[in-house]
Known about the structure:
Mean pLDDT: 80
Number of domains: 2
CATH topology of the largest domain: Rossmann fold
CATH architecture of the largest domain: 3-Layer(aba) Sandwich
Distance between the termini: 22 Å
CATH class of the largest domain: Alpha Beta
CATH superfamily of the largest domain: SGNH hydrolase
Strand order of the largest sheet: 1-4-5
Structural class: alpha/beta
Amino acid sequence: MQRFTGREKADIAVVMFGANDRLDLRESGASVRFRTDEWRAAYAARANKILTLLTTAGLKVIWCGNPIARSPVYSADMNYINDIYAEETARFGARFVPRGPPSPTSRAATPPTARTAAARRSGCGPMTASTSPGPVTS
Length: 138
């Protein structure tokens, strides 16, 4: 990311990480358990590092939250991570865009046979609904 911000000329960075981040972290050679206060602090520090790099480069940041899925356990974990993103982006004046549950026509909520038929009709598969961030302002 440092190389990108040093070379490329952009106005906006759109960020989305974390869909597989429900794991323990390694910090200073030690394992930090997911959903502990230590994990939250370490994960927030990582998000903070990314936000610092992007905002220092003069980019406006839109951070997309993780999707909320059919699995209640996965969804609860994504909400936990999204809460960290929302807190950190607020500190930097960045925009956090939460992603809600699948819409009735989304890929996650549609059985495979209906997905296949819809993809054939439209030329592409259905998209998961998300909240529109609206215009980016300073």
